[in-house]
């Protein structure tokens, strides 16, 4: 039998065998410090503060859109015979060429639309009975200049802010000294213009604090949307007016137990817009609010303001009251001016407005004074046009809604459309 011997190795008795961890010997410097090495704390990078629009809006839009690309408006596809344009390679190529144009027409219009949306958002939130019309107008115009980043021919206000009350349908903006205060029973039309390098964005809405006029406002909004929906390349303007009228006049309003039919205001219309000319100049087209025999067609590339006006009155307007709106004639006649104040005023108009509409408050703002005689002389000589306020019959109420649209080669773009209307 073989014996197996087992040898057991003994570890030397020491610190490790007793399972006691050895502790490092602390040797301190002569200066008494602990000698510990402190870890450097990493400095946190300050978070970039998100740029926000002020209230009221006063921060220029280029800070939010540094690449110069602005939001596209609402896209509506063409109907019937023009539906092929949506997928046409040829039409897509034409649009691409337009977008590559150094003038970037579409982006100028879209910037104006974004300015309009922000300015009107604030206006719709803050306009209340008890405010003066001057206060309302100046707040809108200050916001427009700040967001558009201009106050002249490069950018800024496209035309005087229209603040048209009740039976006044259009062309009223308060002159200096106007003390009109908005009342609870008023129906207020707010017509705001923005321009970027002469490309004018024109859009309007109506406010009322009296429930009985909700149907009037709804009628006009629906009529404007009909005009937008039915507009398109090759559409005849007279027929489009008939569709607008049909929608408008399908509504009625009950006030004080009496029924009033809503009527389209026949003397007003939508219009084309060309650079620095709000009504498209001598070749401009008009979109009537009633059916007419006008066979003129809308065309590819047209830029239209589709605006409609409804009334509880006669549906006819007359000029009346103190004038606030003016615009220099595009093709200025060569008329010798012998009135010194008129010569001086014309230089101011040419420098700051060109053919853009302006009002007396804008001349006041530029430091012009005692200019009425010279201004009236320019009107008499056919150099400047005056646009008096337009009124339906006393006691009635009028309403307005308006959008601007581009008839693009492939689709229809409602550039001024927003969440509000």
TrEMBL record:
<feature type="binding site">
    <location>
        <position position="191"/>
    </location>
    <ligand>
        <name>a divalent metal cation 1</name>
    </ligand>
</feature>
<feature type="binding site">
    <location>
        <position position="271"/>
    </location>
    <ligand>
        <name>a divalent metal cation 2</name>
    </ligand>
</feature>
<keyword id="KW-0963">Cytoplasm</keyword>
<feature type="domain" description="Peptidase M24">
    <location>
        <begin position="107"/>
        <end position="308"/>
    </location>
</feature>
<feature type="region of interest" description="Disordered">
    <location>
        <begin position="1"/>
        <end position="63"/>
    </location>
</feature>
<keyword id="KW-0645">Protease</keyword>
<feature type="binding site">
    <location>
        <position position="202"/>
    </location>
    <ligand>
        <name>a divalent metal cation 2</name>
    </ligand>
</feature>
<feature type="compositionally biased region" description="Basic residues">
    <location>
        <begin position="38"/>
        <end position="50"/>
    </location>
</feature>
<dbReference type="InterPro" id="IPR036388">
    <property type="entry name" value="WH-like_DNA-bd_sf"/>
</dbReference>
<protein>
    <recommendedName>
        <fullName>Methionine aminopeptidase 2</fullName>
        <ecNumber>3.4.11.18</ecNumber>
    </recommendedName>
</protein>
<dbReference type="InterPro" id="IPR001714">
    <property type="entry name" value="Pept_M24_MAP"/>
</dbReference>
<dbReference type="InterPro" id="IPR050247">
    <property type="entry name" value="Met_Aminopeptidase_Type2"/>
</dbReference>
<comment type="similarity">
    <text>Belongs to the peptidase M24A family. Methionine aminopeptidase eukaryotic type 2 subfamily.</text>
</comment>
<dbReference type="Pfam" id="PF00557">
    <property type="entry name" value="Peptidase_M24"/>
</dbReference>
<dbReference type="GO" id="GO:0070006">
    <property type="term" value="F:metalloaminopeptidase activity"/>
</dbReference>
<keyword id="KW-0031">Aminopeptidase</keyword>
<dbReference type="InterPro" id="IPR000994">
    <property type="entry name" value="Pept_M24"/>
</dbReference>
<dbReference type="GO" id="GO:0004239">
    <property type="term" value="F:initiator methionyl aminopeptidase activity"/>
</dbReference>
<dbReference type="InterPro" id="IPR036390">
    <property type="entry name" value="WH_DNA-bd_sf"/>
</dbReference>
<dbReference type="InterPro" id="IPR036005">
    <property type="entry name" value="Creatinase/aminopeptidase-like"/>
</dbReference>
<feature type="binding site">
    <location>
        <position position="402"/>
    </location>
    <ligand>
        <name>a divalent metal cation 2</name>
    </ligand>
</feature>
<keyword id="KW-0479">Metal-binding</keyword>
<feature type="binding site">
    <location>
        <position position="171"/>
    </location>
    <ligand>
        <name>substrate</name>
    </ligand>
</feature>
<dbReference type="GO" id="GO:0006508">
    <property type="term" value="P:proteolysis"/>
</dbReference>
<dbReference type="GO" id="GO:0046872">
    <property type="term" value="F:metal ion binding"/>
</dbReference>
<keyword id="KW-0378">Hydrolase</keyword>
<comment type="function">
    <text>Cotranslationally removes the N-terminal methionine from nascent proteins. The N-terminal methionine is often cleaved when the second residue in the primary sequence is small and uncharged (Met-Ala-, Cys, Gly, Pro, Ser, Thr, or Val).</text>
</comment>
<feature type="binding site">
    <location>
        <position position="402"/>
    </location>
    <ligand>
        <name>a divalent metal cation 1</name>
    </ligand>
</feature>
<dbReference type="GO" id="GO:0005737">
    <property type="term" value="C:cytoplasm"/>
</dbReference>
<feature type="binding site">
    <location>
        <position position="279"/>
    </location>
    <ligand>
        <name>substrate</name>
    </ligand>
</feature>
<feature type="binding site">
    <location>
        <position position="202"/>
    </location>
    <ligand>
        <name>a divalent metal cation 1</name>
    </ligand>
</feature>
<feature type="binding site">
    <location>
        <position position="307"/>
    </location>
    <ligand>
        <name>a divalent metal cation 2</name>
    </ligand>
</feature>
<dbReference type="InterPro" id="IPR002468">
    <property type="entry name" value="Pept_M24A_MAP2"/>
</dbReference>
């Amino acid at each position: 039998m073989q014996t197996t011997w087992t040898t057991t190795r003994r570890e030397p008795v020491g610190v490790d065998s007793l399972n006691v961890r050895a502790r490092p010997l602390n040797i301190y410097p002569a200066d008494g410090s602990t000698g510990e090495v402190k870890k450097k704390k990493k400095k946190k990078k300050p978070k970039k503060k998100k740029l926000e629009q002020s209230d009221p809006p006063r921060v220029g839009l280029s800070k939010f859109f540094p690449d110069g690309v602005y939001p596209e408006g609402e896209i509506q596809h063409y109907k019937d015979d023009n539906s092929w344009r949506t997928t046409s390679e040829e039409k897509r190529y034409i649009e691409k060429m337009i977008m590559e144009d150094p003038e970037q027409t579409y982006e100028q219009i879209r910037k104006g639309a974004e300015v309009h949306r922000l300015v009107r958002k604030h206006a719709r939130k803050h306009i209340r009975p008890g405010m003066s019309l001057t206060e309302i107008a100046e707040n809108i115009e200050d916001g427009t200049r700040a967001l558009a980043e201009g106050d002249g021919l490069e950018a800024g206000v496209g035309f005087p802010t229209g603040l048209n009350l009740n039976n006044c349908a259009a062309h009223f903006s308060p002159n200096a000294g106007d003390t009109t205060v908005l009342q609870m029973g008023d129906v207020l039309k707010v017509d705001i213009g923005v321009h970027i390098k002469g490309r004018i964005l024109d859009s309007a809405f109506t406010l009322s604090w009296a429930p009985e006029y909700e149907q009037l406002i709804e009628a006009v909004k629906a009529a404007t949307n009909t005009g937008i929906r039915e507009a398109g390349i090759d559409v005849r303007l007279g027929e489009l007016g008939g569709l607008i009228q049909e929608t408008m006049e399908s509504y009625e309003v009950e006030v004080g137990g009496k029924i009033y039919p809503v009527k389209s205001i026949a003397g007003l219309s939508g219009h084309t817009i060309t650079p620095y000319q709000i009504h498209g100049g001598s070749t401009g087209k008009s979109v009537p609010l009633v059916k007419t025999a006008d066979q003129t067609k809308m065309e590819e590339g047209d830029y239209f303001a589709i605006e409609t006006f409804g009334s509880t009155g006669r549906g006819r307007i007359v000029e009346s009251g103190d004038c606030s709106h003016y615009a220099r004639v595009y093709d200025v006649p060569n008329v010798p001016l012998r009135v010194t104040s008129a010569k001086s005023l014309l230089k101011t108009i040419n420098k700051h407005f060109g053919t853009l509409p302006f009002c007396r408050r804008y001349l006041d703002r530029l430091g012009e004074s005692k200019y009425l005689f010279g201004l009236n002389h320019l009107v008499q000589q056919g150099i400047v046009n005056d646009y008096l306020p337009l009124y339906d019959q006393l006691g009635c109420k009028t309403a307005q809604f308006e959008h601007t649209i581009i008839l693009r080669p492939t689709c229809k773009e409602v550039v001024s459309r927003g969440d509000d209307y």
